[in-house]
Prior knowledge:
Strand 2 (67-75) and strand 3 (78-81) form a beta hairpin. This protein has helices at residues 2-14, 195-198, 271-277, 314-335, and strands at residues 54-58, 67-75, 78-81, 96-99, 112-121, 135-139, 167-171, 186-193, 212-216, 232-236, 243-251, 262-266. Helix content is 14%, strand content 22%. It is built from 4 helices and 12 strands. It starts with a helix and ends with a helix. The protein is an alpha+beta fold. Strands 1-2-3-6-5-4 form a 6-stranded antiparallel β-barrel. Strands 7-8-9-12-11-10 form a 6-stranded antiparallel beta barrel. Residues 10-22, 33-39 and 289-316 have low confidence and may be disordered. Helix 1 (2-14) runs antiparallel to helix 4 (314-335). This is Acrosin.
Amino acid sequence: xxxxxxxxxxxxxxxxxxxxxxxxxxxxxxxxxxxxxxxxxxxxxxxxxxxxxxxxxxxxxxxxxxxxxxxxxxxxxxxxxxxxxxxxxxxxxxxxxxxxxxxxxxxxxxxxxxxxxxxxxxxxxxxxxxxxxxxxxxxxxxxxxxxxxxxxxxxxxxxxxxxxxxxxxxxxxxxxxxxxxxxxxxxxxxxxxxxxxxxxxxxxxxxxxxxxxxxxxxxxxxxxxxxxxxxxxxxxxxxxxxxxxxxxxxxxxxxxxxxxxxxxxxxxxxxxxxxxxxxxxxxxxxxxxxxxxxxxxxxxxxxxxxxxxxxxxxxxxxxxxxxxxxxxxxxxxxxx
Length: 336
């Protein structure tokens, strides 16, 4: 009986706690749908849940789906995207995001459409050089996490991005240069390319800054394209089964051209800027939490640990060991 009781206590301690936001995970895919033959330029469809943090940013009065750019959920009420999506934008506070779907014209069941509350563009963004091409969208109401809606993992500067693999891009952008946008999410695997190679004389000739990431292929053929702007470049963690949001689709010469890969804003270089804009860090502070949490509770934010080998809440483990200590004391007294 005592062994059975101990086992029940252990199960109770390790059973995940369910609360309003416990179903939110960081960088975890519900479905793995990648096909080695597919291309984002040229088109192959992603399956529902394959990239649950990606959102479509839409202009309601634009024809079709209204899709303008992509973005990534980094908390229940914030989307990370590219600044250039909002240059000369007309009333962006009247725009909206669509989450939890790969289809835009006939959204998947459970798709969420939420209006934008405000747009925060990096104060030093340059439309000429595309430096600091990053922006945040605060939503009017929080998204609800589920199988098809999750958060992206946002790294700080301690993450060693070079060498991460596999990496992927996704979006509803054009499948060929100058073509119309598809209505089903496209995805593709890409390789990270060293900045020195990207800046070489036969590539981008020094146009890439230290706050950029290059990704694609030397021979071209697979790339992000117009309409994918603001969407995610993600790479799998070296040890865990989850993905880091390492880049924001920013710019490139054409789509899928040889030695002209996609150029992405490096998210880890703007980690503290992001936290300051979200009100999670004072501008005067020089240190920040090790990564953005999977959930934020207002008015006081809470931070959860990075996904690892022990996903159970610390308070439940503490409760278990307290109960175990009490039980051992009871056993000791009964044997005396």
